[in-house]
Design goal:
The protein is mainly alpha-helical. It is built from 4 helices and no strands.
């Protein structure tokens, strides 16, 4: 994430997109995935690339923690 921010700060948005892709699309719930998606959307916009719809909408279950039990307990 810091490297991607550094690329953005120096005007190399395309390099930031490359760095952020794997973090933003991690198959496992990651504490940094939401932040990476937001930064990736910013980097794609700065690079003049089309925004990916998956970056503007949360992935299924994102932000929710599952315990294996339903909500009724």
């Amino acid at each position: 994430m810091r490297l991607a921010r550094a690329y953005l700060a120096t005007g190399d948005a395309r390099a930031a997109v490359i760095i952020l892709g794997p973090v933003a699309n991690a198959p496992h719930a990651s504490s940094q995935r939401a932040a990476a998606r937001a930064l990736l959307a910013e980097a794609r916009q700065a690079a003049g690339l089309a925004l990916d719809a998956s970056l503007t909408t949360p992935a299924a279950g994102e932000g929710e923690e599952t315990t294996g039990e339903d909500a009724t307990g």
